[in-house]
TrEMBL record:
Belongs to the OXA1/ALB3/YidC family. GO terms for molecular function: membrane insertase activity. It is a multi-pass membrane protein. It comes from the Eukaryota. The keyword Transcription regulation does not apply. This is Cytochrome c oxidase assembly protein COX18, mitochondrial isoform X1. Residues 95-308 form the Membrane insertase YidC/Oxa/ALB C-terminal domain. Pfam families: 60KD_IMP (PF02096). InterPro entries: YidC/ALB3/OXA1/COX18, YidC/Oxa/ALB_C. Keywords: Membrane, Transmembrane, Transmembrane helix.
Length: 345
């Protein structure tokens, strides 16, 4: 029996080696065909570990970028690559400006409408709270009366109250078309978009694209401006990474100032987001400048939209309901809140 099992294991191992060898041969043939395409040999850039601005940052970044290898050739990433290249070719902008325009188009055309929807849903939910509290009091009285008549235990009363309260709240959500899930659409769309664009830019910066990879990489190497003229290498000055971290922290503080009283869970989430914002600084410092520039411009557009959505005129234009917490002087109140938080008089 043991001999049979050993033979079976050896056979399986040999089969695995044969499959791995066939895959390596297929990749070699595909690469040879790619090199010989067009009647001549072309030098293609091969993916290499990112080197940071010093202190071994490139080695620390390898695990981060190694995790995205499986997505590098996916259909969404290839689609984003084609879109970025098409936008730059159609506009004729230098690559640094094309990347800023890409973030502006995606943020304004895709995430801004979802942000408006989020604010509209949150405003409706806030306006529903007094009605929900009133109905909860009435339901509590009814459950107490029926519980005494039917001899319910305290556990049964709580169960009946929660079950009926869920039904009442669900009906209110349907009536006002403000289910909380709709408020999370922004995150569900924005995060995958951010990941796909980041990986697409990485592919472009190392020449790993479906077509004309080395040509795009050449353009990116001279398509920068100011201190980051080469968009394929990290920002050695750390100006963009640090600015990115500070900008993200400022956005988080904007959301933290929206409510004076927050729950313990919201407090933990805010601290987590602050930690992620700080962590993004060394990550951006080891990424190509084109990625850091996209992250920075995307965060700047996000900050602009957050400030815009506080404007009473824009909120009326987008049919966002007025709430008790709404202010006619949001920017003045924002400055006052920041000054109070920093104890500036």
């Amino acid at each position: 029996m043991r001999i049979a099992v050993s033979k079976m294991a050896a056979s399986t191992f040999a089969g695995s080696l044969a499959v791995a060898s066939a895959v390596r041969e297929w990749r070699a043939v595909s690469r040879f065909r790619l090199l010989c395409r067009g009647g001549g040999v072309r030098t293609l850039a091969t993916p290499a570990p990112f080197q940071g601005g010093g202190g071994g940052g490139g080695a620390a970044a390898q695990p981060f970028w190694g995790g995205v290898e499986s997505l590098a050739s996916s259909a969404p990433v290839v689609f984003v690559e084609s879109g970025i290249v098409a936008l730059q070719a159609a506009s004729g902008l230098p690559w640094w400006a094309a990347l800023v325009a890409t973030s502006a188009v995606l943020r304004t055309g895709l995430t801004l409408p979802l942000a408006v929807l989020q604010y509209r849903v949150l405003a409706k939910l806030e306006n529903l709270q007094p009605e929900i509290q009133s109905l909860a009091k009435e339901l509590h009285c009814e459950v107490s009366v029926y519980g005494k008549q039917l001899g319910w235990s305290e556990k049964e009363k709580r169960f009946q109250f929660k079950r009926n309260m869920r039904r009442i709240v669900s009906n209110l959500y349907i009536r006002d078309n403000c289910h909380p899930v709709k408020a999370s659409l922004l995150v569900l769309v924005q995060m995958p978009m951010w990941v796909f664009v980041s990986i697409a830019l990485r592919n472009l910066s190392i020449g790993r694209t479906a077509s004309e990879g080395d040509f795009i990489q050449e353009q990116l190497s001279t398509g920068g401006v100011l201190w980051f003229t080469d968009l394929t290498v990290p920002d050695s000055t750390w100006i963009m990474p640090v600015t990115l971290g500070l900008l993200n922290l400022f956005i988080i503080e904007l959301f933290a100032l929206r409510k004076t009283e927050i729950s313990k869970l919201q407090k933990y989430i805010t601290h987590f987001c602050r930690a992620v914002s700080v962590l993004m600084i060394p990550i951006a410092a080891t990424a190509p400048s084109c990625i850091a520039l996209y992250w920075l411009s995307s965060s700047f557009m996000g900050l602009s939209h957050n400030l815009l959505l506080r404007s009473p005129a824009f909120r009326r234009l987008c049919a966002i309901p007025q709430t008790k917490s709404h202010s006619d002087t949001p920017y003045r109140d924002l400055i006052s809140a920041f000054c109070a938080k920093l104890s500036i008089k």
